Every structure is written in structure tokens, then in C-alpha cells.
Amino acid sequence: MRFEWLNGLFDFSRKERNGILILLSIIFLLLILRIVLPIFMPVQKVDVTKWNAEVNQFLLAQEVKIPDSIRVVPFDPNKVDSLTLVYLGVPARVVGYWLNYRRKGGVIRDMAGVARIYGMTPGVVEKLKGYLIFDKPDRHSVAFKKVNVVDNNLDDVKDKVVVERYVAKIKPNLSSIELNGADSLSLIRIPGIGPVLASRIIRYRKLLGGFYTIDQLREVYGLRSTNFETLAPYLTIDPSAFANFNLNFSTFQELCRHPYVGYKLAKKIMRLRDQKGKFSYVADLSLLVGVDSLNRLKPYLRFSD
């Protein structure tokens, strides 16, 4: 008597029983079809060998290929370029630390100095042992000069001796590189230019439309004056290789993007152009910008087609 409530759970009406029978019949039919259909309708196998071959070819194309012209010979760690280090298996991140250490005036004098480079592993150090040659420091490589330094705490001028260390560098066998047409691979072969600086130079060159003088490199972010003096002798400028823009037809966005114009000056130019019409001469901008800034911008300006 205690389980009468359980019997009530299985007490179905006639319609409910018929529904259950139909549902069970459908399930049974689907199971039969699942077994029988593959017999009468075999699944065709898809040939993916061609697709796999195309994928492998694409992946191989993405690999960095070292030019066949590179021949690694024993080198001085204070003069080696980034391409040689990458070829020898030094990780790109460690190459950046290596070159940055040299740019800051650091000198690698022995294998212990190589091992102290941030990110360097014992395996990479062992791989480099057969290629490194260490030159003895030249007593003339350290230059002293006397400069005046303002001491803000004492409000007077004191003479201090500042030691500037110059690492002697053997000029690589490079022909002059035209700056407006050089790619990043060409730029990183120049002493003082690493992968990061090369990308910044190319990015700044695109914004400008090209360089008309090598001195414009001083404006590249992260390029120090000492680096500029090192790399300038290797560069040339093609005066016809940079692009100018028509000031009368340039949009506001195009003017803003140019490093020598910017948002504020572009806004003034657009307002003056709307008020007085087209510009005809560089002097028309003299009310909007200073003489030095105007002379810097002048080579990029064009007023007619």
C-alpha cells in the first residue's frame, strides 16, 4: 500500500500509450537507417594530399631564408652585424640586446662578456665560441674632452671632465646606400642601425614622403647623435626620390599625417584656404608658420599640377 503513488506514475491514458509507441517506433526506425544507409550509400573519401602539399609549400615560403651570399667567418663581437648573429642562431630578442649594449658604449672583451648579455643561453654561447675574435682595446679608443656643465643645485658653472668611449670599428665592405630606396635588410647592415631603428626610419620616411637631406634622420625617434655620426657616411640621398604634395588639393587628414604639418597647422591651412582660395607661393604660409618650420616644409610643397 505504501507504493500506490509509484503505480500512479506509470498509469497512462490511451492517447499517452499510443504516443509512446509512435516515439519508440521512430527511434527504432532511425537506428535501422543508421545501420543500413552506409551499406547502400558508401561515404566517399576525400583526397587531401593536394591540399596538404599546398599547405606545406605555404609554410615553407613563410620561413626566413638567409641569402646564399652570407659566409660566416670569425668576427669581432663589437663589430658584428645583426644578420650574421641571426644566421648563427642567436635569437632576435638577444640580438637586439647585444646591439643596444654596444650602442650605449659597452665593449665585449671576452666570452664572459658575451654570456652576460641579457637573454643569452649557455647553448648559444657554446655555438659562438668558434667564431669570436676579441681585439685588445686601443689606448686611443678613449677620448677625453672638457665641457661646461650647469649645476642646478649650486647655480654656477663647473668644469667637469666627461669621458667618451669610442669603440674602434672596421668599416664594412658596403657601397653607399640610397636612403629613400633602402629596405630594412639594407639598413641593418649599416653600423649603428638595428632592426627596431630600421623599422622606425622606414616608417618615418613613409610619413614624410621621403628624405631630402640625411640630416632629417636626426628626427627619427631613438636615433642618438653619436649613432648619426656613425651611419651618415654610408648613406646618400637621391633628390628626386622623395614625394611632395599639392597644398591646394590635400585633404585635412592628409595634412595632419605629415610630420611637418600636424593637426593645428593643418586646421589653420584649411581655414585660410577656404577664406582666400588657392595658395600660389610658399610665402602665403608665412602668417601661419615660423620661418624655420616653413623652410623645413618647403621642399614637400607643390601648388600646381
Span from first to last CA?
106 Å
> Which of globular, elongated, flat, extended, rod-shaped describes the shape?
flat
Work out the helix count.
13
Which band does the percent of strand residues land in? Answer: 5-15%
Structural class: mainly alpha
CATH A-level architecture of the domain at 177-236: Orthogonal Bundle
Oligomeric state, counting identical vs distinct chains = single chain
Helix content: 40-55%
User: What topology, given as strand order, has the largest sheet?
Assistant: 1-2
The CATH H-level superfamily of the domain at 177-236 is: Photosystem II 12 kDa extrinsic protein
Major pleated sheet: 2 strands, antiparallel
- What is the CATH class name of the domain at 177-236? Mainly Alpha
Per the CATH scheme, the topology name of the domain at 177-236 is DNA polymerase, domain 1
Summarize the structure.
The chain is mainly α and 305 residues long. The chain has 13 helices and 6 strands.
Would you give an account of this structure?
This protein has 305 residues and is mainly alpha-helical. Among the domains are: 177-236, Photosystem II 12 kDa extrinsic protein (DNA polymerase, domain 1), CATH 1.10.150; 245-302, DNA polymerase, domain 1. The chain has 13 helices and 6 strands. The strands form 3 sheets. Strands 1-2 form a two-stranded antiparallel sheet. The chain has a two-stranded parallel sheet with strand order 3-4. A two-stranded parallel sheet has the order 5-6.
